[in-house]
TrEMBL record:
Keywords: Ribonucleoprotein, Ribosomal protein. GO terms for cellular component: cytosolic large ribosomal subunit. The lineage of its organism: Bacteria, Candidatus Yanofskyibacteriota. This is Large ribosomal subunit protein bL27. One of its GO terms (molecular function) is structural constituent of ribosome. It holds the Pfam family Ribosomal_L27.
């Protein structure tokens, strides 16, 4: 007996689900406490004031307010400086 069916079998056809990463609330939009602002892998955006960083690097609001995106210079451990994007939630 054959180990696979004669018709209609294929070894591909499997794919993972999309991860739906990216910015969920834009600059100036209102965020409630606990609402997700950014879903990301790694720290492309840093958490500023009024937001927290989840275990999967999700940035979410810890208080209600308006979303603000800013930049700042950050010095790494090896002395290199780079400009990073920071997400804040400021009260209304």
């Amino acid at each position: 007996m054959a180990h696979t069916k004669a018709i209609g079998t294929t070894k591909n056809g499997r794919d993972s689900q999309p991860k739906y990463l990216g910015v969920k609330l834009a600059d100036g939009q209102t965020a409630n406490a606990g609402s997700i602002i950014i879903r990301q892998h790694g720290t492309k955006f840093l958490a500023g004031q009024g937001v927290r960083l989840g275990s999967d690097y999700t940035i979410y609001a810890s208080m209600p307010g308006k979303v603000r995106f800013t930049t700042k210079r950050k010095t790494g451990f090896n002395g290199d400086r780079r400009i990073v994007k920071v997400v804040n939630v400021v009260p209304n």
